[in-house]
Amino acid sequence: MEFRNLKKQYQVLRSEIDAAISEVLTEANFISGKQVVQLEEELAEYVGVKHCITCANGTDALQLALMAWNIRKGDAVFVPDFTFFSSGEVVSALGATPVFVDIDPDTFNISTVSLEKAIQLIMKEGKLRPKVIIGVDLFGQPADFKAIKEIADKYDLLTLEDGAQGFGGRIGNKMACSFGDISCTSFFPAKPLGCYGDGGAIFTNDDNWNVLLRSYRIHGKGRDKYDNLRIGMNSRLDTIQAAILLVKLKAFKEFELEAVNRAAQIYTNELKEVVKVPVIKEGYYSSWAQYSILLPDRILRDKLQGNLKEKGIPSMIYYFKPMHKQMAFHEESAKVDYGITERVCDTILSLPMHPYLEREEIEIIASNIRDVLKLKKGE
Ligand SMILES: *Cc1c(COP(=O)(O)O)cnc(C)c1O
After folding, report:
1. Mean per-residue pLDDT for 337-363?
2. pTM
3. Does the Cβ of 162 fall within 6 Å of ligand 1?
4. Beta-strand relationship, 174-175 and 170-171
5. Ligand 1: which residue has its CA nearest to atom 5?
6. Contact (Cβ atoms closer than 8 angstroms) between residue 185 and residue 61
7. Which tens digit of pLDDT belongs to each residue from 277-305?
8. Distance 360 CA to ligand 1 centre (A)
9. Rounded to whole angstroms, how far apart are CA atoms 306 and 302?
10. 327 alpha carbon to ligand 1 midpoint, in Å?
11. How many A from CA of 297 to the centre of ligand 1?
12. Helices 145-155 & 112-125 angle (0-180, nearest 10)
C-alpha cells in the first residue's frame, strides 16, 4: 500500500502528462515558457484572486511574501507551533523573530485565543514590532481566517496564508489561498496539487505587491534581470513543472478533490467510534493533504504505527516536534503555553490518503486499527 499513490496517478494521467512534457522538450523553452503564464492565469482564476506568481517552491513563496513586506530584524511574526518547519524558517531567515502560538485541538490550526495572548505579550514586552500573522491551512483545512483577520485588523497586522497543504480547500465559497493579504502554496509532489519536483505559487489581489513579488523572484529585477533594483532571489517555476501542473490541475478540479473527500468520509465512518477523527468545521471544506487521527497516548500511537507497518500499511507522524522545540529556534524565547501542540505531537498519526485510495484499502486499514485498540482493552 502507498501512503500517497503518485504512481497510480501517473498511470491515469500518463498520456496527457507525457505529451505536455514532450511539448516543452520540443520547444526548448525551459524557463518562463508560455505554460508558466497559462498556469498563473488558471491558478488565479481557480483561487479567485487577481494575481498568481509562481516560484521555485513553497518555502520561497513564503519568504518572497515577507520580503515584499520588508520583514526584517526586530519584527515579530506569529506562527503556529504545529506546522512544517518552513512556516517559521522563512521568518528567521530574514532576521525577524517567529513567535510560536499554540493550536486548536480540533482543527490543529492556530488558536486565535492563544494568538491574541501572544500578540499582547509581545506588545507588553516592547522589544519586537508585531507585523505579520501566518495562518497555516494544516492537513488541508483552512485556518480560521475570519477570526485571524479580525485580530489582524485590531492590532494592525498583515496576514500571510501558508496554504502549502491547503490548496483546494474552502471556507464557504471562498477558496484557500485567497484568505491572506498574501497567500502561498507548494507544489511539492505529495501536496494536494503536486508537480514532479519542486514548485510553489504566491497569490494576492494587491497590484503593488504583485510587482514587488515578480521582481524579488528574479534577482530583484527592474526592466529585466540585468537591471536590478533590489536584492532578490532566483526562484522560478520550470516550464516542465508548469506543463505538468496544467494537466494535474485539470484532474484536481474534475475528480481528485472530490475523491479525497469521499475517502475521508469513508475513513470517518469506519473510525469515528474507535479513535478521534479529524474535525472539519461547519462551512469548511478540506483538500485532505493528510487524514490524521489522535490516539489516547503516545505508547498506543507508536504501537499502532508499528502494527500497521508489519501489515504493510504506511503511516506518518506529522509532526513529532513542536516548532518551539526545534534546535534551530533555540534562541526564540517561548514564554507561552504550548500544551495542546505538545499533546498532539505525542498522539497524532496520519494514515494513507490520496485520490486513488480504494474503499477496500480504507476498510483494511480501519480493521487493523480496531484490532490494535481492542488488544489494548484486553491487556
Ligand atoms: C510543504 C510545506 C511548506 C514548504 O513547501 P516546499 O515546497 O516544500 O518548500 C511550507 N509550509 C507548509 C505548512 C508545508 O506543509
Report:
1. 97
2. 0.97
3. yes
4. antiparallel
5. 58
6. yes
7. 999 999 999 999 999 999 999 999 999 99
8. 31
9. 6
10. 19
11. 28
12. 20
How would you classify the pairing of strands 291-294 and 284-285? unpaired
Q: Is 302 helix (H, G, I), strand (E, B) or coil?
A: helix
Please report the pLDDT score of residue 334 as a whole number: 57
126 φψ region: left (φ > 0), alpha (ψ -120 to 50), beta (else): left
Q: Is the pLDDT of residue 379 over 60?
A: no
In 3D space, the residue among 166, 238, 164, 232 whose CA is nearest the CA of residue 201 turns out to be: 164
Where helices occur in 156-295 by DSSP H, the ranges are 207-217, 239-251, 257-271
Please identify, by atom number, the ligand 1 atom nearest to the C-alpha of residue 165.
Answer: 15
- SS3 state of residue 161: strand
What pLDDT, on a 0 to 100 scale, did the predictor assign at position 330?
80
Residue to probe by mutation, ligand 1, list 66, 162, 185, most atoms within 8 Å of CB: 162
**Which one-letter amino acid corresponds to residue 106?**
D
Cis ω before 196 (30° cut-off from 0) = no
Which grid cell sits at 366?
A: 480501519
C-alpha cell at 76: 515579530
Q: Is 135 in the pocket of ligand 1 (CB under 6 A)?
A: no
Q: What is the mean pLDDT of residues 249-271?
A: 98
